């Protein structure tokens, strides 16, 4: 009997700066578990990064860094398909074709477009408006069943489904209809300075976030300065004690515990002790990741060979879907 085929999972991540422990505990760490369960395609979405102004040298550098960091953090290039979006031309090609089946009206309802375009001032790129169509192409090329993303991407998954269903209904079943896979509790790491907001690498205050590259002394300093509150009780209460709750969450994530377990082992500590313990847990978690990252960044050839292999494996699947689409809509295939 043949083994039942694994379900396909696709996700993309932007090469926009260093990953934070929020990205790690909230998404990347989860991916390392998913890579054995699903047939996974994970993609550095450099073309999506171009929807807002980018410095060329910086984009290139960050693409290498993100790719290396994902491997260092536990994604195994032999187990999953880890690739760079622009290495697989089918993403751009399908994106154009899907544009012909997407309406201005539905794109103009996207919250992320409204928010990002408001920040861009006058010259908003057409690509920013079109961002969700490229994302739909990413997902649909691989016939993905599941797409692990944050809550903020819910609307983009919905539009991907709408485009796919519209296409399937117009022609015949072509695309698998994907489902979003949203993180369960325990994945949201908040800012160390304003714990009611999500931790973000674009925060103007560097003390608000911890990147996977931060040195132990910086991690310790940032936790020491973390915002808490004026009583002295260590209990998990997001509403009334967001700072302490966030520290407990990070403690639990770094040590592979539940929130309850974290609360039990920290309940009797002072705030200062809790901060030390959280810092220590994070430093220990990051140590092996940072070591592997340094090794990989020194070996560009190895990194590039992983990228190439990833692109080759991705391309095989992507091109098959692209050809199917081209044929159905009436393009003459090149022979
Ligand atoms: N838009 C996603 C984000 O900002 C990144 C992304 C691009 C993505 N293509 C994707 C996520 C395909 C999942 C699937 O987080």
Summarize the structure.
The protein has 335 residues and is mainly alpha-helical.
Structure description:
There is one protein chain. This protein folds into two domains: 8-187 and 299-329, HUPs (Rossmann fold); 206-294, Tyrosyl-Transfer RNA Synthetase (Orthogonal Bundle), CATH 1.10.240. Helices cover 55% and strands 7% of the residues. It has 13 helices and five strands. The strands form two sheets. Strands 1-2-3 form a three-stranded parallel beta sheet, sandwiched between helices. Strands 4-5 form a two-stranded parallel ribbon.
Helix content: 40-55%
Give the termini separation: 37 Å
Assembly state (oligomeric): single chain
Order of strands, main sheet, comes to 1-2-3
* Helical stretch tally: 13
* Number of DSSP-assigned strands: 5
Number of domains: 2
Category by helix and strand content: mainly alpha
Bound molecules: tryptophan
Q: pLDDT average, as an integer?
A: 95
Runs in which pLDDT lies below 50 for 5 or more consecutive residues are none
* Annotated CATH homologous superfamily of the largest domain: HUPs
String of helices and strands: EHEHHEHHHHEHEHHHHH
Cα-atom radius of gyration: 21 Å
At the fold tier of CATH, the topology name of the largest domain is Rossmann fold
Shape: globular
């Amino acid at each position: 009997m043949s083994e039942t085929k694994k379900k396909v999972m696709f996700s993309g991540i932007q090469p926009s700066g260093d990953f934070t422990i929020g990205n790690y505990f909230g998404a990347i760490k989860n991916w390392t578990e998913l890579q054995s369960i699903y047939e996974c395609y994970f993609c550095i979405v450099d073309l999506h990064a171009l929807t807002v102004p980018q410095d060329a040298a910086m984009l290139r550098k960050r693409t290498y860094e993100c790719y290396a960091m994902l491997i260092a953090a536990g994604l195994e290039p032999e187990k999953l398909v880890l690739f760079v979006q622009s290495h697989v031309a089918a993403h751009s090609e399908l994106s154009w074709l899907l544009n012909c089946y997407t309406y201005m009206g539905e794109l103009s309802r996207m919250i992320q477009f409204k928010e990002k375009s408001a920040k861009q001032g006058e010259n908003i790129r057409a690509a920013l408006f079109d961002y969700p169509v490229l994302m739909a192409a990413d997902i649909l090329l691989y016939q993905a069943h599941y797409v692990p993303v944050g809550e903020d991407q819910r609307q983009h998954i919905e539009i991907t489904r709408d485009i796919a269903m519209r296409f399937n209904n117009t022609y015949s079943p072509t695309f698998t209809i994907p489902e979003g896979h949203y993180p369960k509790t325990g994945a949201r790491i908040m800012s160390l300075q304003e714990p009611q907001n999500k931790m973000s690498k674009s925060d103007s205050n560097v003390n608000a976030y911890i990147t996977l590259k931060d040195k132990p002394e910086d991690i310790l300093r940032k936790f020491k300065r973390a915002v808490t509150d004026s009583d002295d009780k260590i209990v998990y209460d997001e509403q009334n004690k967001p700072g302490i709750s966030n520290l407990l969450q990070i403690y639990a994530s770094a040590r592979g515990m539940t929130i309850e377990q974290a609360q039990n082992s920290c309940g009797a500590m002072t705030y200062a002790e809790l901060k030390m313990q959280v810092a220590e847990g994070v430093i220990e978690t990051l140590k092996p990741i940072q070591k592997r990252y340094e090794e990989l960044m020194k070996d560009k050839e190895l990194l590039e060979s992983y990228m190439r292999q990833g692109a080759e494996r991705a391309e095989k699947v992507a091109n098959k879907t692209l050809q199917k689409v081209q044929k159905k809509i009436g393009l003459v295939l090149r022979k």
